[in-house]
From TrEMBL:
Stored SUPFAM superfamilies: DNase I-like
Protein name (Swiss-Prot/TrEMBL): Endonuclease/exonuclease/phosphatase domain-containing protein
Taxonomy, superkingdom: Eukaryota
Length: 136
């Protein structure tokens, strides 16, 4: 894959977050699933998959199932959450252009969840330091 995985382990729970910059090529989908199996990932958050709704099942197998998904009408955008364990999670893809209502609405939704265990994976389209985090 073109991006580096960032994986965390909370006890025996292994979490992988990937920004894949598109998974329309079969080889990239295979590499993604292989990476998840190789690292023994329990939960994977896939950002910027660029998969259409009808193509989302192509990125799952006997081990990893799509737990939640969102995508655009064309081959753009998209985020999926895959799991191997039973756990509640939220995958967030924030708007690239700031919207006043997004974060207050997100906060309200997150606070309304009653699950004891909650894992959040996100592409917040935000930076910590504008001098360090830029695309040019």
């Amino acid at each position: 894959l073109l991006t580096k995985p960032h994986d965390l382990c909370f006890g025996c729970l292994s979490i992988l977050c990937l920004n894949v910059r598109g998974l329309n090529a079969k080889i990239k989908r295979t590499q993604c699933l292989d990476l998840m199996r190789c690292k023994n990932i329990d939960i994977a958050f896939i950002q910027e998959s660029h998969l259409r709704v009808g193509d989302i099942p192509h990125l799952q197998d006997k081990v990893y199932k799509v737990a939640a998904s969102t995508s655009g009408a064309s081959k753009s955008k998209g985020a999926q959450g895959y799991f191997r364990s039973l756990i509640a999670f939220v995958s967030i893809y924030a708007p690239a252009v700031f919207e006043d209502s997004f974060f207050p609405g997100l906060t309200k939704e997150l606070l309304s969840l009653s699950e004891d265990e909650l894992v959040i994976g996100a592409d917040m389209n935000a930076v910590f330091d504008l001098n360090l985090d830029r695309s040019t």
